[in-house]
Design brief:
Structural class: alpha/beta
Bound molecules: (1S)-1,5-anhydro-1-(4-bromo-2,5-dihydroxyphenyl)-D-glucitol
Number of helices: 34
CATH superfamily of the largest domain: Glycogen Phosphorylase B
Shape: globular
Number of strands: 24
Helix content: 40-55%
Strand content: 15-25%
CATH class of the largest domain: Alpha Beta
Number of domains: 2
CATH architecture of the largest domain: 3-Layer(aba) Sandwich
């Protein structure tokens, strides 16, 4: 029989053409084949969208080749693997990124030209994969790109939401949310794995049975759903490796429902089955706001259970002793959202694999690591015990057992300090008894990570102080990073070409530290000239987009000043808008001569507000109200424009960031864990106007405060200012512009009242008033620098030159070496 199988394999191999060919002619044939056989369109009659889809399928074929080879290679060499667990991934578009990472962009461009299409035009046909909210989710996507590029044997796991983050539609200046049914026209980037399925259980009871004289807990579930795998290949750049992002979709289970059919209510039982699919239906659109909803908990456990079953199955295929688990598997918890994994792994090891509790716990702690993205303790995730008890009764018991043992151990170390014990307990006894997911994640992991140096200091001295003092060796930080492949090579091709030209190499695309080499040309005027042209090209693209979106014509001579990110009070978009009102007010009161010296500005704001976040929604409306006033004031003309870019997402970011001169990052010091927008702008030669918060502190270290515009209270000052009050620090101009809003200068005064109240003296938690003076000064400094183009260009070059440290490659390598203990595993050519 072995001989037979071998003969069969040989015959199949001889039938294969070898690898797909990438010369333009072969690519054309492949694209046309997909038009005809995949899209079932006539090759003589197809539109841009169909052309995009056929193109995408031909790229997909090439991804699959590498992805197969990579997995065969991993399987054969058995390295320790990393599993990156995250409930959110903001992948954006895949086409351009894929062909660039595969190294066949030029060939595709030529192939399409010969067919009468333009690559860039077809790329615009693709919709974003928006399976996440903001920074945390885009970070996961950047990190997947780095894991693939650096050849790490890693898998990502996530949920395949059918509705991604809502689309933001602006009507009359108000945000409306529309469903993002992104799978409408099929998704060529995923591979449906109908045979990779697992049963996920919910509800039911826990029974105790006798197993060979030992008492054993058995969970008898009341509901089952099936998890189906959808695989998304992630190609590395400059390597053959392509790793996998496996997303789970919920389907009705075929088990357990036999009963229903026997009752005769056939139609209702079918309808009920369909309810299973709701689990992976929709992404929760709240950034940093956990509400203890049953469906959300169900999503979390559905994700955790399917992923762990898959991981344990793969481990058992290759190894037969759980002692080896920590040497072969690293499980990373991206925030607390997947931290039920700790209880689930314990359940599997103890209840199903019959390991002794202590042995299982030892294994679990070695396997898990955890990153927290949160700064303030109040924002940490909690799950009401009632909810957990009904949905996952066995897991609640396990969490209680973990906590009991932890509390016993803690008492031995710190004595009967009940205040501290209760602060550190995984179980919170309060009005609503709940589980503190961060405490569970910390207790069950061997490494706890922060996302910037400043964040780490806050964790150690405030948020997680008790835990840090107990286990200082567990705590680390790895400053976030972003991938230069997406944020320069894909989104800013002109800058990419310019950098490669002046560095004389493309090696920086895999090694961003080489960007420092740009400093060698800092005084070269030819270089400056080309640098200026690149920014101009990108500003033209952005200006066209702005006009198409909002009808506002903007001048390319103006400074493009951008703030794009989720709308949050702590990010202080309101400070920006009040600053714009101040600028407008100054212009109105200026005589004609002075106006001639003013630097014209195009202020651009974009971002989504969580649907239930009223104040954030009012900020969006205020932005529109102010824009309407300013943009229609002929007296002001091109000196000041304000545009709100609707539906900010990854692909809009690619356009906006490349075209920005100045970007704003205004969080009150001590509130942004890291911030990654800064890094994207930095890489695109856009100057930063920012507070010394999150990772900005490290950017200042790297490029120097004289190459950016830093303002505002420092983190040490913030606590004091809140305590002592800081009325004396609030400038008159602040009260003046706030009055303008209150008095209805922009209309809607009743609607804006509660928004104005949030920044009134004594109520101004985020310190807009006290920071206003310093903010206006920083803005003036930016204006001053802008009228000296030479100076501005140098600052811009030095920004890019100093951005190498903020590549996610550096972050990932650090995680691999210090946390996950994994080595590269490079698939041979
Ligand atoms: C999220 O996007 C972030 C933190 C959270 O706790 C949640 Br929930 C969502 C962000 C931080 O606010 C940023 O400062 C940080 O750069 C980003 O996560 C990535 O670490």
């Amino acid at each position: 029989r072995f001989g037979e199988r071998r003969a069969k394999a040989e015959r199949m191999f001889s039938l294969m053409d070898g690898f797909l060919k990438n010369d333009p002619l072969s690519l054309q044939k492949d694209i046309l084949n997909h038009v005809e056989y995949t899209m079932a369109r006539s090759r003589f009659n197809f539109d841009d969208f169909e052309a995009y889809q056929a193109l995408a399928h031909s790229v997909r074929d090439r991804l699959i080749e590498r992805w197969h080879d990579t997995h065969v290679y991993f399987k054969r060499t058995k390295p320790k693997r990393l599993y990156f667990l995250s409930l959110e991934f903001l992948m954006g578009r895949s086409l351009t990124n894929s062909v660039i990472n595969l190294g066949i962009q030029d060939q595709y461009a030529e192939a399409l030209n010969q067919l009468g299409f333009e690559f860039e035009v077809l790329a615009e046909q693709e919709g974003d994969a928006a399976l996440g909210n903001g920074g945390l989710a885009r970070l996961s996507a950047c990190q997947m790109d780095s894991l693939a590029t650096l050849d790490y044997p890693a898998w990502g796991y996530g949920l395949r939401y059918e509705y991604g983050l809502f689309r933001q539609v602006i009507v009359d200046g108000f945000q409306h949310e529309q469903p993002d049914y992104w799978l409408n026209f099929g998704n060529p980037w995923e591979i449906e794995r109908i045979h990779v399925t697992y049963e996920v259980k919910f509800h039911g009871t826990v029974e105790e049975v006798d197993m060979n004289g030992k008492k054993q807990k058995v969970w008898v579930p009341g509901e089952m759903v099936e998890a189906v795998a959808y695989d998304n290949p992630i190609p590395g750049y400059g390597t053959r490796n392509a790793i996998n992002l496996r997303l789970w979709a919920a389907k009705p289970s075929n088990q357990l429902n036999l009963e229903a059919y026997n009752t005769g209510d056939y139609i209702n039982s079918i309808v009920n089955r369909q309810r299973a699919e709701t689990i992976s239906n929709v992404l929760y659109p709240d950034d940093r706001n956990h509400q203890g909803k049953e469906l959300r908990l169900k999503q979390q456990y559905f994700f955790v259970s399917a992923s762990l079953q898959d991981i344990i199955r793969r481990f058992k295929d290759a190894h037969n002793n759980f002692d080896e688990l920590p040497d072969k598997v690293a499980l990373h918890l991206n925030d607390t959202h997947p931290s039920l994994s700790i209880a689930e792994l314990m359940r599997i090891l103890v209840d199903e694999e019959h390991l002794d509790w202590n042995k299982a716990w030892d294994i679990a702690c070695k396997v898990f690591s955890f990153t927290t993205h949160t700064v303030v303790a109040e924002a940490l995730e909690k799950i009401p015990v009632d909810l957990l008890e009904s949905l996952l009764p066995r897991h609640l018991q396990i969490i209680y057992d973990i906590n009991f043992k932890f509390m016993e151990e803690l008492k031995k170390k710190i004595g009967l300090d009940y205040n501290r014990l209760s602060r550190m307990s995984i179980v919170e006894e309060g009005a609503v008894k709940s589980i503190r997911m961060a405490n569970l994640a910390i207790v069950g992991s061997h490494v706890v990570n922060g996302v910037s140096k400043l964040h780490f200091d806050t964790l150690k001295t405030r948020t997680l102080k008790d835990f840090y003092e107990l286990w200082p060796e567990k705590f680390q930080y790895k400053t976030n990073g972003v991938t230069q492949r997406r944020w320069i090579v894909v989104s800013n091709p002109s800058l990419c070409a310019l950098i490669s030209k002046w560095l004389g190499t493309e090696a920086w695309i895999r090694n961003a530290d080489l960007l420092t080499g740009l400093r060698d040309h800092i005084d070269n005027t030819d270089f400056h000239q080309e640098w200026k042209m690149v920014k101009k090209v990108n500003k033209m693209r952005l200006a066209e987009y702005i006009e198409a979106m909002s009808g506002v014509k903007v001048s390319l001579d103006a400074m493009f000043d951008v703030q794009v990110k989720r709308i949050h009070e702590y990010k202080r978009q309101l400070l920006n808008i009040l600053g714009i009102i101040h600028r407008y007010d100054c212009l109105k009161n200026m005589d004609k001569n002075d106006r001639r010296k003013v630097v014209p500005r195009v202020c651009i704001i974009g971002g989504k507000a969580a649907p239930g976040y009223e104040i954030a929604k009012k900020i969006i409306k205020l932005c529109h109200a102010v824009a309407e006033k300013i943009n229609n004031d002929a007296d002001i003309g091109d000196l000041l424009k304000l545009v709100f870019i609707p539906d900010y997402n990854v692909s809009v970011a690619e356009l906006v960031i490349a075209g920005a001169d100045l970007s704003q990052h205004l969080s009150t010091a001590g509130h942004e864990a890291s911030g990654t927008g800064t890094m994207k702008f930095l890489m695109n030669g856009c100057l930063l106007l920012a507070t010394a918060d999150g990772s900005t502190v490290e950017i200042i270290e790297e490029i120097g405060s004289d190459n950016m515009f830093v303002f505002g209270a420092k983190v040490q000052e913030v606590a004091q200012m809140r305590e002592k009050g800081s009325i004396s620090k609030v400038p008159l101009q602040f009260s003046r512009v706030l009055r303008m809003v209150r008095d209805g200068y922009f209309g809607h005064e009743d609607y804006f009242k509660s928004l104005c109240d949030t920044v009134e003296i004594d109520n101004d938690f985020y310190l807009l008033g006290p920071d206003f003076g310093s903010y206006i000064e920083a803005q003036a400094a930016a204006d001053k620098a802008f009228i000296e183009p030479e100076k501005w260009i140098k600052m811009s070059i030095l920004s890019v030159a100093g951005s190498g440290r903020f590549s996610s490659d550096r972050t990932i390598q650090d995680y691999a070496e210090r946390t996950w203990k994994i080595d590269p595993c490079r698939c041979p050519l």
